[in-house]
Amino acid sequence: MNKNQQITGNYLASLWSFFASIRLTVVVLLSLAALSIIGTLIPQNESPAQYFNAFGPFLYRVMEILDIFDMYRSWWFQSLIILLVVNILVCSIDRLQTTGKIIFDRNPKFNLDNYRRRKSRQDFRSRMDPETCKTTFHQRLSRQFGYCRVESVRQGYAITAEKGRWTRLGVYGVHFSIVVLLIGALVGSMTGFEGYVNIPEGEATDTIHLRFSGLPFKLPFAIRCEDFDVQFYKTGAPREFRSKLVLLEGGQPVLNKDVIVNDPIRYKGINIFQSSYGKLDGDNPAAAPPKEFELTFKSAASGMIYSIKAGLNQTIEVPEGLGTFVVDGFKPAAQFQGMAIGPALTGTLTPPQGKPQSVVLPLKFPKFDAMRRGTVIIAVVHAENPQHSRYYTGLQVTRDPGVGLVYFGFVLMILGCMVTFFMAHQQVVVEIQPHGKGVSVMVSGRANRNKVGMQNDLERLAHKLAEMAREGKE
Amino acid sequence: MHYNTLILSVVTFIYGLAAVLYLFSWVFHKEAPGKLATWVTLLACIGNAAGIALRWYESYQLGGGYGHAPLSNIYESLTFFSLTIGVLYLGIERRYGNRVIGVFALPLAFFALAYASFGTNDQIQPLIPALKSNWLIAHVISCFIGYAAFAVGSGAGLLYLLKDKGTFNISTLGRRLLWVLSILIWVLAAGALLFIVYALFFHFQTKMSGLPGLSMVLAGLKPLAGLYIKIYRWVGLPLGAAFPNVFATFLVVCGVICALFYLDADSAVFKLLPELNIVDELTHQLIMFGFLLLTVGIITGSVWANSAWGRYWGWDPKETWSFITWLIYAALLHFRMMRGWRGKRIAVLSIVGFAAVLFTYFGVNLLPGLHSYGAMKG
């Protein structure tokens, strides 16, 4: 029985030391790094058909089983992350006890011999008497160090001082921040959602589609897009996408805001981001007949070009007395002798003498009518669509209650790194021994991190104390 | 015509001059060129900063909503990168009182700026909507200071390996092979460098048309540069606008390393190198500093992504690669702080880490993802 317990105890102990090992940490860190590369080489979350075409049936099957196409959410990647978290927690608990003892020790022990043996010790002599020296140095040191105490050693004194004990906690801050981040991410993925919706101008909806699954999802409010506007730079690059949105609850407007990229709406924990846009008419904005157009009439006789604006079925007097012209139709996809010539106006030209002729005027080919070899060449310069084409706005809608935790983790991580890397627990010993008529002083110290910085600090301190001793004497 | 690109082109040469002076001072044991190099570097940094400031001002002069802090495309980030390397190096020189690191740091600043000047589009481009964010500025600044620290850190790591050559035990055959290899690399590098000089002068001439003398230099360089191009075509190497400089950087670095490894460990060249433990500590300090800034960079980028796209992390290739870089350096710090790794192993890891940084910056643009606006448009 007893033996059994011991064995279980041993197992537990070895399991504990497995999870508490730094070797495990670096193995997990480097495995995460190596495995993450896969997802950057193979685009994630594409359609199965694309993968199938790219890799063929066998590889596709294997990769699908291994979740390669959604690897960052696969069981094996997530298990590695959980392993890292367990490792962090066990390591922290394992070491926190020792650190706690150091931090909450009321009477820290300074082994003077250790300090005397240090190569970095600084020595100087002064003609100051030991008592004054002790008081002056003690004052100086207590200004700089949180803990400062004087002991009598041999014939003289030793001033022991230290600061920055709490900086030993920095590293726990960094590690805890990772756990906080991951909890935040977990909260987000369990209780939040991420979806998208396209809303045409002037319309409202309360149903979005979830990312990945594509399933419809009902929001607690409706979003109405009053207006969408896109601005461009001179170069043609987009300058701003702006959606005028109104949020409606029970048909009543509750919030009115323009959403642009980098400035989302945040309402009741739900965020609405400008993400894309498009034209409702699709790729063919010329599907509707133009309301107004500008035509040019080039007289074959004089070579003069006349520009005239007109609407559908409006009779135009052709200049130079060449007759009348009426645009009587519009073909979104006109054909000429079996050739597709795109959208075109059709019209009737009635010369002063002779029969009316039908004329085809493709919007894309202004020189088309020259082929007719008539007395006047007609071209369409500009055709305006009946209404400014309607846009829809593409919105990303998310809810992530974990963001607060994640941001807290961010702040903790930065602060923790700063403390861990650039601050240290410093301990200093200043020993004053009578020497002849004055004193001989030793300044020594150590730090748990940044030894070079500590060395510099010690040199500076020794220099300062020597200066004080000189001034105090004079 | 914008003066900022002109200034930054000139600054490229000043960095190059400083690099040469540092090298000269190191190889020939002369103090004077080293001192001069420090001042030249300072001048280059001031010019670099002025160029960036002027670019900022000129972007607002353009009107039409073009105005923005010059940190948005590859050209602008590289000019900032070279400035950071310059300033960081000067700080280290001041603190450690050793100029040898300049031999490794200044060429980085030179090549970064040379690459920016004629390998990328140096026009002031307006910001697309996603880039209009103050988080972007914080993101780019902290990332690039971090990258610069990693760059100089890997330089220090390399220095460590050079000084600590005794541990490598290169055989006689290895030594001979190394010698042949370094000659080969140097021949290729010389060609590439020549091409860069030619291209820089050419670039310079288009900026300052009609400058007498320049066209003569160009005429002189042209046959040689043409020969280089011919050799490259013959060997079958690609010859893009940006390729020769990246390649040349690589070659020069390889060449320097091979040549130095060929030298005897007790060669006079190594005498001037700082003590091993100081180099080791410097590497460590730089990596801690870089790691903090990379962390801040990833975090600010994440906050920015959350305001632009509604998610703080999306496993986009650029994000993933910055995460990979972060993990590599995190592993390095654990090796060092918890397992007491020192010296050679840390030096090697610092170089591996910087390779990951380079891939995060340059390589990722070859992969698909949201960050592709960072890609070259030139």
What is the strand and helix layout of this fold?
The complex is a heterodimer of chains A (474) and B (378).
Chain A: H1 2-19, H2 22-41, H3 48-65, H4 75-103, H5 112-117, E1 122-126, H6 130-144, E2 147-153, E3 156-163, H7 170-191, E4 193-200, E5 204-210, E6 216-232, E7 238-249, E8 252-260, E9 265-267, E10 270-279, E11 292-299, E12 305-311, E13 315-318, E14 323-336, E15 339-350, E16 357-362, E17 376-384, E18 391-399, H8 403-422, E19 426-435, E20 438-447, H9 451-473
Chain B: H1 3-27, H2 31-61, H3 74-96, H4 100-119, H5 134-163, H6 172-207, H7 214-235, H8 243-262, H9 268-271, H10 276-308, H11 317-339, H12 344-361
* Percent helix of chain A: 25-40%
Question: How many helical stretches of chain A?
Answer: 9
Low-confidence stretches of chain A: none
The Cα radius of gyration of chain B reads 21 Å
Spans where pLDDT lies below 50 across 5 or more residues of chain B = 238-242, 369-378
Class by SSE composition of chain B: mainly alpha
Strand content of chain A: 35-45%
Instruction: Tell me, briefly, the overall form of chain B.
Output: globular
Interface with most residues = A-B, 52 and 49 residues
Percent helix range of chain B: over 70%
Largest sheet of chain B at a glance? Answer: none
Order of SSEs of chain A, N→C? HHHHHEHEEHEEEEEEEEEEEEEEEHEEH
**What is the total tally of β strands of chain B?**
0
User: So how many helices of chain B?
Assistant: 12
The largest sheet of chain A has its strands arranged as: 8-7-6-5-4-18-10-9
> What percentage of the residues of chain B does DSSP assign to strands (E)?
under 5%
